[in-house]
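Each letter names a residue; the fold follows as tokens. Both lines appear below:
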Amino acid sequence: MTAASEGDRTAATSGDPAVEAKSMTFWEHLDELRRRLVWSITAFFVACGAAWAVREELLAWLVKPFADSWAAQHLPGPATLHFGAPGAAFVAYLKLSMIGGVALAAPMIFYQLWSFVAPGLYAKEKRYVIPFVLASSSLFVGGGYFGWRAAFPLAFNYFLGMSGTVGGQGVTITPTVMIGEYLDFVMQMLLAFGVVFEIPLFITFLAMAGVVTYLSLFRFGRWFVLIAFVVAAVMTPPDVTSQLLMAVPMCLLYFLSIGLAYLFGRKPTPEELADYRRNKKRKPASDEG
């Protein structure tokens, strides 16, 4: 083999992600994963420290929907959060710092995630690192904000609405909300909405990698609607309104993802298009039968 042909072979394979991925051994991949985790965890703890410095302001922001719902239900006195052990308030503030730490460290965490998968991508795909970090961080924080703004008031109104006087004996149900349990609920809801809002980015990434196409996503749409309502029923309070506030955005984001997959993903092959048209024609006949 000549030197020229050897150079051509190297140039032809240098852009292949499969070839580049094979250049790293299993232990090298583990070491790379360890480095990315170290950076992510370090950023998280630094962000937690920054959130601890403003913990009272964060708590005031997080309890606003609860306080507004307390007043809307005409409960006696101001809204209160309780703790049942001497160290419970300290632990609650630690949880609160973790909530703020996740939000503040999101750009660094998503950057490390992209850096870990980047060696398996083509050069044209690696250039999306900045849009990926900005979009993923914005969607995650935006999803949490949507939950706080839209779902929290409805959820707290539903729960606090169960208080009051019941029966002819004048028995009164009084809410006594513990700060630790309140923050556990808030963390679960914020994380759920943050992850849900990552759907367009996740599906777009799969489309760019060639795993899915807009046709396969469109055909899976009816099943995704079912999955969205099941997930919403599990992750949100039992009232229908809160479930709709999660399920409907999930469905809208999914169908938005189909458009993004059409723009940025691979195009279906002629065989896939033909199969899609056959199934579309077969569907009315099967429905009649």
